[in-house]
Amino acid sequence: MGVLETRNLSLKLNGKNILDKLNIDLWQGHVHAVVGPNGAGKSTLAYTIMGLDGYRNIEGDIFFNGVSLKNKGVAERAKMGITLGWQEPARYEGLTVKQFIIASAKEKKVETVEEVLSKVGLNPEEYINRAVDKTLSGGERKKIELASILAMQPSFVMLDEPDSGIDVASLEKIFEGIKLLKNYGATVVLITHSLTVMKQAEHAFLLCGGKIVEKGSISKIEPYFEKECLPCEHKNIPDKGGS
Predict the structure, then answer these.
(1) Residue whose C-alpha is closest to residue 16's, from 39, 37, 43, 49
(2) 187 forms bridges with which residues in the sheet?
(3) 38, 95, 142, 240: which has the fewest Cβ within 10 Å?
């Protein structure tokens, strides 16, 4: 049994099947990737696992360490060790970086804040008293969010489009953070349509039309990025190329 499993997981939004009988196993201490075109259901899968409002009216079930999540809210899932890093991290007017990180940190110490900021490539002296607001760039907010996750020490982490809106140097720090999470024993799930990001994983699922159309090693999924499509039963698959 994987650390997290979905069994015939389906979700309808506005009358449309966004997730369609998904069966996936995610293994403890591994880095997985969920890839696919825009609208495939990648972020929806993450929101459903997290139990966000509007994403809980599911069919099938989700199991975390053998326990059903179906009737558990976001707070309960977070207490179990599940967390989500957003594609667009939130801004918190009036909240400092120190307050933001300590709020969810396992060890609520200033030293913890300084340590995790350093690990994501941010100078603690420069950032610890900065406000988590619009004065921070997208890359800075991504790294601060990752620092908060490192301080939290969750056992299951989903990162939605971790490369969105950041430069190459910042992305390298994000990748270092992913390796740290794995070294801590966390299971990491990368929600992405980037080959570069997928290559940070050990195993990948290709999602299309709310269904898993392929899964396996990174090398097995890599042709999707070369051809922009893989053979599947999707009713809208074109005769040549496309996605």
Answers:
(1) 39
(2) 156
(3) 240
b/e burial code for range 45-84 (CB count within 10 A of at least 16 → b): bbbbbbbeeebbebeeebbbeeeebeebeeeebbebbbbb
Instruction: Confirm if 214 and 224 have CB atoms less than 8 A apart.
Output: yes
CA–CA separation, 242 and 229 (whole Å)? 6
* CA neighbours closer than 13 Å in the CB half-sphere of residue 218: 14
222: tokens are 């890599």
**Could you report the per-residue pLDDT of 70-123, keeping only the tens digit for each?**
999 999 999 999 999 987 666 677 789 999 999 989 999 999 999 999 999 999
Contact 144, 127 (CB under 8 A): yes
Burial 189-205, CB ≥16 within 10 A → b, else e: bbbbbbeebbebbebbb
Q: For residue 99, what are the CA distances in angstroms to 38, 92, 127, 173, 241?
A: 35, 10, 12, 22, 49
